[in-house]
What does this fold into?
Amino acid sequence: MGILDKISEIEKEIARTQKNKATEYHLGVLKAKLAKYRAQLLEPSKKGEKGEGFDVLKSGDARVALIGFPSVGKSTLLSTLTSTHSEAASYEFTTLTCIPGVVEYKGANIQLLDLPGIIEGASQGKGRGRQVIAVARTADVVLMMLDATKQDVQRLLLEKELESVGIRLNKQKPNIYFKVKKGGGIAFNSTCPLTRVDEKLVQMILHEYKIFNAEVLFREDCTADELIDVISANRVYLPCLYVYNKIDQISMEEVDRIARQPHSVVVSCNMKLNLDYLLERLWEYLALIRVYTKKPGQPPDFDDGLILRKGVTVEHVCHAIHRSLAETFKYALVWGTSTKYSPQRVGLQHIMHDEDVIQVIKK
Ligand SMILES: Nc1nc2c(ncn2[C@@H]2O[C@H](COP(=O)(O)OP(=O)(O)OP(=O)(O)O)[C@@H](O)[C@H]2O)c(=O)[nH]1
Ligand SMILES: [K+]
Ligand SMILES: [Mg+2]
It folds into this structure.
């Protein structure tokens, strides 16, 4: 039996097993088995499986992958937002490789990747599904493009495809501490009441992975699936913005309904509607900040800001300016929303905000 058959067998068994207290352990083990087989499926089997035309180098400050069914308008969006042209046409699978473009926004260079359309079964190798998904895993944000004139099942189908290969959209990593040990058995603990798993189920799942010695600490009320995510190290957690295109074809009421859904933006690439707002939201999901440097007695350098991730400290800023700056660092003066006073004297651990100005004073 091939892996795909095994997967479909287990999926069928999960589907026909009633969910209740008595089957809880059985289901947990089945899910762990399923996760294992799917992980095997992801391992590159044939040489060169990654595929010509998909190994695009990362460049710029962040990477965004355009994922969607065929002909939803992905290439049209790339050609509209960047100076790169990507062929668009009314037939499906116009795009067959990964086409990179650059969106310049707020001084940042954002790499936008146009990709072939994916379809149901993509994760199992249909179309160019596996290559597309491999690229999606390397992105900082997924732009899932949807056709606003079509039913919302397309979104669920795509989410399922990505979910089945370990991509988690708009989800936090489960707060479970997990460490495999050399001996001592399974040490299981929690810092809160657990309603979805118990020690026995956790043990059974770990045994399915042939893990007999480990430290497991639940810091929140997680499910068996979330535990499996933590054990399977190949999970990625990505912010995802759902972009509903072709709103020129639907009623205002429908546009209004879709626009109110969480993580969603409505646009028309052909009519260039709402693309500014799309970029604004994308910026928010990328969680980038701009930090401006200033030399003593001179105005800040607003033309050449540093592009960094939200949550960076002064120490990160020093590294971004010069490799050895943190070593000769005495203190910094910061102007902006991260401080109580402007300027304020801060140390290396101070967390920077968007549009802060910094002046580093050396020893
Ligand atoms: N009505 C309407 N049509 C659009 C819009 N954006 C794109 N299209 C049309 O949709 C069709 C498909 O566009 P593409 O950009 O090729 O779509 P794609 O997602 O790149 O398709 P594949 O590469 O085949 O996966 C083309 O005929 C476009 O002109 C839009 O905003 N409104
Ligand atoms: K197309
Ligand atoms: Mg295309």
In short: The two ends are 68 Å apart (CA to CA). The pocket of magnesium ion (ligand 3) is lined by residues 74-75, 94-95, 114 (CB under 6 Å). DSSP finds eleven helices and 16 strands in the chain. The longest helix spans residues 24-42.
